[in-house]
Structures are given as structure tokens and as C-alpha cells.
Amino acid sequence: MIDRAARDQLSGNLRHLIVGGITNDQFERATPVDDGDPAIWAITDMSWLLYSDMKEHRLVGRHSIAPVWKREVLRWILFLDGDFEYRWPKISLPGLHPIRRARPMWLSWHNAISHDRASEFLAAGDYNAWPFISRSEYKHALRHPRRLAGRPRSSQTEQLGN
Questions:
Q1: Rounded to whole angstroms, what are the CA distances from 56 to 19, 33, 130?
Q2: Which DSSP string do the residues of 70-87 spell out, in sequence order?
Q3: CA 51 vs CA 31, 62, 65: distances in Å
Q4: Axis-axis angle for helices 67-81, 38-47 (nearest 10)
Q5: 93 near 46, Cβ under 8 Å?
Q6: Measured distance CA(12)–CA(7) in Å, rounded
Q7: Residue 119 is inside which H or E element, if any?
Q8: Closest-CA residue to 123 (of 105, 98, 104)
Q9: Are 89 and 121 spatial neighbours (Cβ–Cβ below 8 Å)?
Q10: DSSP reduced 3-state for 147
Q11: Quick one: pLDDT band at residue 35, thresholds 50, 70, 90?
């Protein structure tokens, strides 16, 4: 189930968070509650890794996130702005590679998962496209973004009188 209002809210909040427009605390207060759209839970769970929850701050200066994480977040935003169902199995921190977190059951770690659960998760789709299930979905979203898409060139040309 896609909750368009919740996805739009989380997408906007993430955009404001990564550019320092809102603080981590403002982000958390404005984050929509997971009410049936599994993408909301998964991406909210991952967004917690972007900041410290020990004090209020903006993601600027020494608190800014690395470019590699900005690219990740932009992919999450692209997913939230689209109309694809989130089809990954539910695990904590799904954007952190599950195999790197797989541990034997006797070795306890808060974010650890079993090797079987990690394998099941990875078998669901192309992990490099997460939260998209496949590269084809991701490429489709890149070709047809909902935001900043502008008008088709033919419409712009007609309006200019050319």
C-alpha cells in the first residue's frame, strides 16, 4: 500500500534534513507514522543513521553527511516520490548491507541478523537499487521523476513561440 501523503511528507522532510533546513529533532517530530506503507518504516529506520540523537543539530558543518550518504538519501527520496510498492522483506536498517550484519545466532548484536534472514532479504531483489526492488524500477524513476521534471520540451518550445 502506498500512502502518498506520508511519502510526500517524509520526502520533503528528508530533503530539508540533508541540506540543513531543519534539525534532527524537527525531522523526528515531523516524521510520519508507519500506517501501512512499509516504505515509511524502512526509510525512517534508515534515516536515523544520518544524525546523532544525543543533541539537536542541523546536518551542516561538522554534522554534515558524506556525499555518498547524500546520494543514498536522494535515491530514497526518488523512491518516495514515485509510485512503486516497497517489496523488500522487513528487517531493521534495510539499507545497511545485510551480509555485513549477518552474525551467528550465539553472537548477539543489536542490528545483527541471521545469515538465513540476510540471504532471504538479498534474494528479494537487486540490493544495489534499494529501496527500489530492481535497477529497472530505479532507472524508470530516474527517467520519469515526479519532482523537478518540468514541462516536456515540446510544450516549452510552443510557449516560446518557436
A1: 15, 21, 29
A2: HHHHHHHHHHHHS-PPP-
A3: 14, 11, 8
A4: 160
A5: yes
A6: 8
A7: helix 115-123
A8: 98
A9: yes
A10: coil
A11: confident
